[in-house]
Amino acid sequence: PAPPSKEDLRLISGYCVCQNLSESLGTLCPSKGLLFVPPDIDRSTVELRLGGNYILRITQQDFANMTDLVDLTLSRNTISYIQPFSFGDLETLRSLHLDNNRLMELGPDDLRGLVNLQHLIVNNNQLGRIHDKAFEDLAPALEDLDLSYNNLLSLPWDSVRQMINLHQLSLDHNLLDFIPEGTFIDLERLARLDLTSNRLQKLPPDPIFARAQDSMILTTPYAPQLSLSLGGNPLHCNCEMLWLRRLERDDDLETCASPPALKGRYFWNVKEEEFVCQPPLITQHTHRMLVLEGQTASLRCEATGDPSPTIHWISPDDRLLGNSSRTAVYSNGTLSITITTSKDYGTFTCIAANVAGESTASVEVSIVQLPHLSNGTGQPAQPKSRLSDITGTTRISKGAPKSQPERAVSVSEVTAVSALVQWTVSKSAPKVKMYQLQYNCSDDEVLIYRMIPASSKAFLVTNLVSGTRYDLCVLAAWDDSATTLTATNVVGCTYFFTQDDYPQCQSLPSQLLGGTMILVVGGIIVATLLVFIVILMLRYKAADTEPPVGKLTSVSDTHSQTNGGRLGQNGLLMSQSQPHPQPAPKIKAKVSLQDEVVDFRRTYLKRHLCFGCSLSTERQEEMFDEDMI
User: Fold this and answer.
1) Count of domains observed in the chain
2) 327 is in which domain, residue-wise?
3) Higher pLDDT, 261 or 10
4) 627 C-beta neighbours (distance < 10 Å), count
5) Domain endpoint, select from 478, 498, 518
6) What is the pTM of this model?
7) What is the C-alpha end-to-end distance of the chain, expressed in Å?
């Protein structure tokens, strides 16, 4: 909200009715419709009551410098947020009432600074979470803590354990389902513990509950009789609650919710011999496991019992396994080994334990090592496995000698980028569901997997790197009839080298040959046309030269009749009727021959050399006439 104006402050100050036993001793402003803490409250106030208003939040400025404040009441407001360190100056505060608000959580610094607080009342809120450090400052001095009627699933139990001066602890009407053992062991002054209407199935057997008996006579201020309320919890009446049944108490109407045989019966009416437990029984577990080195292994172990047993795992070297960077134990009993090594080879032990006893089961783990070259000897390391190979015989008659299994995996047709892998399986082997082919390059440790149907006994591996060593194993997946689980077993392992990819002389591809022929034929045609054009130009250029005078005398007769004529010296026909022709004028003969030559050149060039010209017809005529082409 926006900061109030001076007029608002004046109205607020006049609206608050302050009743002081002495000057500035107390300020009472209940049910005045306030939306925020009045900022003009006397900083030397000892008691401040702001209940029954509509205050939305608490800020650091609200109670700053109130170093004398002892009692602060903020009940029945609409507070949903407390700014961290808002109570930092209230070192003398003894009582804080925050009940009937809308708080949903308490942060680590919301109550910081309340080192002398004795009474903290936070019931009837909507608390679902309290930070582990929320009670850090106030725990040693606190005497009364009320957290009832909230939605708490858990509490900062470590802080509760430090409340050594606590007299009353009200946790009723929450959602608590577990209280750690030893929580109340140091709370010697605790006189009232209310755990009504939670989800508790059992209580930890702390000595403090011995003071909850009705026959308790020797009580002191430091060890008062304990008022314990447990009604409304789904108590599980087994041997873990027998200690509580043996206490001498009146019937508080607590009832048993389980086991089924005792459901609905009054807790204090059940006989002691009926509070029994069931020892653990391992129902399912992994019997054998074969895993490729470096892969994840999950070992199952499920058990039943009353109470529910806790699962522990023991490694082959007798170490208790827990959660680490390489192993994890889950609540359902499964042990997960994220990266297996050769040291994991051996027998793992699953232990299921509860208060009634324990049960064990063994899991045999074999590690299949990929064959790698070692010490530069060129010999692949042999995989370690205690399990018989799936290629071998599963049933051997008594007295029959064991035969060494033949090579089950082979590699053939190896090229630079591919290889054909083949394998064989014994007819007496279990029915295989599928095969798994695993291989990796010698240059790295990345495994490549290929899932292959059970009907196949060969697989073409492609996309390989040339000139490289590959290590390869074939595994088979089959149904274990003993556990009805899917088991895996190794068929065989081998290695191979891909060929080096050297460049070789190869015939020209047909596509390249066809394109080359087209270019060659086209080049020949173009060259022929050019030669023909050059010959024509040279021929007519020669004809354009001026002939001798004597040879031009017969040119005027070129249009005469040729019947009976003879061939002259220039290859022209001469008339026999005129054995002695009269010489014609030289200029006329020359002009006639040149005109014919020019007309021929013009016609030829127009048809053959000027196609595609962008010049107009008139311009071409001028250029021909001027011999510019």
Assistant:
1) 2
2) 279-368
3) 261
4) 9
5) 498
6) 0.55
7) 98
